Amino acid sequence: MGMDERKFRILQAIIDDYILTAVPVGSRTISKKYDMGLSSATIRNEMSDLEELGYLDQPHVSAGRVPSAKAYRLYVDQMLASGRIRSDRPEAVVAHLNARTHQMEDVIDQAAQVLSSLTNYTAVVLPPTKPQPIIRTLQLVPVTQNSVLVVVVTDGGIVRDSVIPVSGSLDADALYSISRSLTEQLSGHTLAEATAMLPQIAARMRDNERLLAQLGGFFEETEEHAQRGHVGIGGASNMLSYPEYSDAEKARGFLSLIETRDKLASIIAHHGDVAFTVRIGPETGVPEISDCSIVTATYSTRSGRQGTIGVIGPTRMQYSRVISVLGAMGQQLSQLFGTQDAEKESPKGSDQT
Amino acid sequence: MGMDERKFRILQAIIDDYILTAVPVGSRTISKKYDMGLSSATIRNEMSDLEELGYLDQPHVSAGRVPSAKAYRLYVDQMLASGRIRSDRPEAVVAHLNARTHQMEDVIDQAAQVLSSLTNYTAVVLPPTKPQPIIRTLQLVPVTQNSVLVVVVTDGGIVRDSVIPVSGSLDADALYSISRSLTEQLSGHTLAEATAMLPQIAARMRDNERLLAQLGGFFEETEEHAQRGHVGIGGASNMLSYPEYSDAEKARGFLSLIETRDKLASIIAHHGDVAFTVRIGPETGVPEISDCSIVTATYSTRSGRQGTIGVIGPTRMQYSRVISVLGAMGQQLSQLFGTQDAEKESPKGSDQT
DNA sequence: GTTAGCACTCACCGGTTGAGAGTGCTAACA
DNA sequence: TGTTAGCACTCTCAACCGGTGAGTGCTAAC
């Protein structure tokens, strides 16, 4: 028993129906609504096979079937391979995006807004990646017996600090000399480079291994934070209209994930160079949204820096629509940032003071 | 029958209990948990009176009583008058707010974060008000027979545009001459001034009354938008944990209100000069949150500009706690922005490019 | 290989019932 | 006159129950 053409057509019908209704779909529904020229009994047999193959789940014995993550995966791969997706509907995107202000952050926010209202899911827009900040100074300040405050100043005036625990007791003088030594060695390097250099340094001044390890974590965190600017989010409330999230506790979990923008951004952030990414259910790697899918696309600025746009929705997402809307939006943003790069990206202090 | 001391004490007990439990409170509960030295029957009589006076509502005949908005009002007024509120707990606020980055926007976001996690409600933080943008140019462009695109350029490079409907048909030339004339008259003025000037101008060139009226609205909208910078929001998902918002549709309404930051900001924005504002239920004037209360406080920068912080929660809010936390946070922000005003408020283009 | 038929399973709905909480009223009491 | 005990009454809520319908798996016939 393998996956033949007919099985695939039936599976597709099931997915289509389930995406529409969110109700487990039975054999009769398929044989009637989607005319396959087959009786419900035959469909039943095929469905049973599909379940055995892992494409369908059955909530309970006398309910219809529900597509599994594996099924959606197949469905989406097939869809992408067939080239049926064109990024159509640029008109809608243009219409919404056009007539407004032109600050970078506003564009980002608006893009998220438009994406969410066109798809009815939750949209996230990340600004183009930024060049890596370079360390200027690093300073350790004693706070209590076993914690120190670490302050990093980078070029561009970004300051970040945090309290980290230390094991041995270190007095102010010791900390100061460590600070000097670290500043000397790390100054001029990016945070990523610094992180890579720490183990070496730790080897040399091995009294403070634990401290330096902590420092590595802090660098990574700081870098992530510095990397991303304003994250645009739209339509978080849309999620509440899907029966998947009628459970208050689940909804709460989802929303608090959305609220922690840093976490959200690192989830959405595009890995690799492909035009689209589709992550389905558990593929997202985030337990809170294990029954969601994430579709992302990229756009790029004239200077070659890339930004990410993404849509989060239930696994029974209208993938084709989402992908096509994302495509259109990606193009639009690329165009917008491509043509007027300089203007858009540096709003100066104009509206800040 | 008036409001005597005893009635007030009973009312207070009812409110305290209801704030804690969200369950209609009965006479027996009061006589047992809060020892008043009165039997439940007596309390019952008093409660009946309180209901007649409009301080209590009864969901149905055999349920306990629930405080009305009027009751909360009395409760809060009394609390404020008694001076029982000191803005204590600055330690907690300081602890959370201290050890972090120092960009204006980050501080705002973090303040919202801290407020929401200390109160378990939804927090909103508005940045200090900005100086009014001044009009440089105004341009009208025909779009269709009965709509024109209006573009305003202000100092600071802020551009805003929008399509507005017009009645009579106007050709490009006519629009251009109107644009020139308007630019001439309005250039150099703030948007607020311009709004005030429009009626006069309309009187002079009275063919286009409707157009100018529309323009007024547009100015106001633009001003509002320009006025506010980044709005910090924290703990929107907290609201879902209260039984008041277990209804999905209601929760959705609340969240989409929170999502439209402009609207939210204008709701929160502080009117007047008082230290605190407490708006209870219908007093908020926003139907979507007619069973919420909003507490706001202000902070100010060295340059005398004011920002607003606010907390939104169910009407059965822990007012005293919220007010004290807001007080502490207000002080903290004032201090933060007061001492290092210049630095904090103009992050330059540093992290933008 | 396909289909009709049939027995079986279960979620879901609507009505019923009993328990519990709370009230309002009345009458007795201090 | 204010307070309290007692009691009948109301109404929600949760549990229970049986019927209904959708859907399945299996078998036997085509």
Count up the helices of chain A: 13
What is the CATH topology of the largest domain in chain A?
Beta-Lactamase
**Widest sheet: strand ordering of chain A:** 7-3-10-9-8
* Percent of residues in β-strands of chain A: 15-25%
How are helices and strands ordered from N to C of chain A?
HHHEEHHHEEEEHHHEHHEEEHH
Level-1 CATH class name of the largest domain in chain A: Alpha Beta
Given as residue ranges, the uncertain stretches of chain A (5+ residues, pLDDT < 50) are: 340-353
Overall geometry of chain A comes to elongated
Helix fraction of chain A by DSSP (H/I, runs of at least 4):
40-55%
Compute the separation of the termini of chain A in Å: 69 Å
Largest sheet of chain A: 5 strands, antiparallel
Structural class, from secondary structure content of chain A? alpha+beta
Q: Report the CATH architecture of the largest domain in chain A.
A: 2-Layer Sandwich
Q: Could you explain the architecture of this structure?
A:
Two copies of one chain form a homodimer. The first copy, chain A, is of the alpha+beta class and 353 residues long. Chain A has three domains: 63 residues, Winged helix-like DNA-binding domain superfamily/Winged helix DNA-binding domain (Arc Repressor Mutant, subunit A); 155 residues, GAF domain (Beta-Lactamase, 2-Layer Sandwich), CATH 3.30.450.40; 94 residues, Heat-inducible transcription repressor hrca homolog, domain 3 (Enolase-like, domain 1, 2-Layer Sandwich). Chain A is 48% helix and 17% strand. In chain A, strands 7-3-10-9-8 form a five-stranded antiparallel β-sheet, sandwiched between helices. A three-stranded antiparallel β-sheet of chain A has the order 4-5-6. In chain A, strand 9 and strand 10 form a beta hairpin. In chain A, helix 2 crosses helix 3, helix 5 crosses helix 6 and helix 6 packs antiparallel against helix 12. The longest helix of chain A is centred in the last third of the chain and has 21 residues. The C terminus of chain A is likely disordered. Chain A binds a DNA duplex (30 and 30 nucleotides) through helix 3.
